[in-house]
Design brief:
By secondary structure, this protein is of the alpha/beta class. The chain is 31% helix and 19% strand. It has a single domain, classed as 3-Layer(aba) Sandwich (Rossmann fold), CATH 3.40.50.150. The protein has a seven-stranded mixed β-sheet with strand order 3-2-1-4-5-7-6, covered by helices on one side.
């Protein structure tokens, strides 16, 4: 787990020239906002409907969960370790009028209960995804869709679909 001090030194060497977008974090993954068009691609690839519960691991400002509720009618849960991100997420849900359909939890997603999700979204580094893979396979029901942006951390678990219409790919797996 990164501490603020250790993480601050890492940002200068982050890939893809995005270090200025990364913020300090208590967790393993810094927050980088996903573009709305990528979020929409992720949710469309997962075929999200109002019957789904979308869980965003490392939800940042809540934009994935809010869009899932607002545009697709889904229920949503966002998990983030940063209290400021959770506050921003709750505010975004209020502004979008979807507070009754979503909730945000300040927690380390490695310890979260993910079993109720029908769709899990991630924008996490490859190593973090690799560490989560056993949890995802053990706790999620068959048929649950996993969608990740930019990083494919599932190793030998080949994605069912890859969308390359954005700067970085979007990956879809089905449990």
């Amino acid at each position: 787990m990164f501490t603020r001090r250790r993480f601050a030194g890492l940002t200068a060497s982050l890939p893809f020239g995005l270090s200025g977008q990364y913020e300090e974090s208590r967790g393993e993954t810094p927050w980088v906002p996903s573009p709305d068009e990528v979020i929409e691609t992720m949710l469309r690839m997962a075929k999200v409907t109002r019957r789904d519960t979308v869980l965003d691991l490392g939800c940042g400002d809540g934009r994935v969960v809010v869009m899932a509720a607002r545009k697709f009618g889904a229920r949503g849960i966002g998990i983030d370790i940063e209290p400021e991100r959770i506050r921003e997420s709750r505010q975004a849900a209020r502004v979008a009028g979807v507070s009754r359909r979503v909730r945000f939890i300040e927690q380390d997603f490695h310890h979260a209960n993910i079993s109720g999700a029908s769709v899990v979204t991630m924008y996490l580094f490859t190593g973090v995804m690799a560490k989560l893979k056993p949890k995802l396979r053990a706790e999620l029901k068959p048929g649950t869709r996993l969608v990740a942006y930019q990083f494919n951390g599932m190793g030998d678990w080949a994605p069912d679909q890859v969308d390359r219409s954005h700067k970085y790919p979007v990956f879809l797996w089905t449990v």
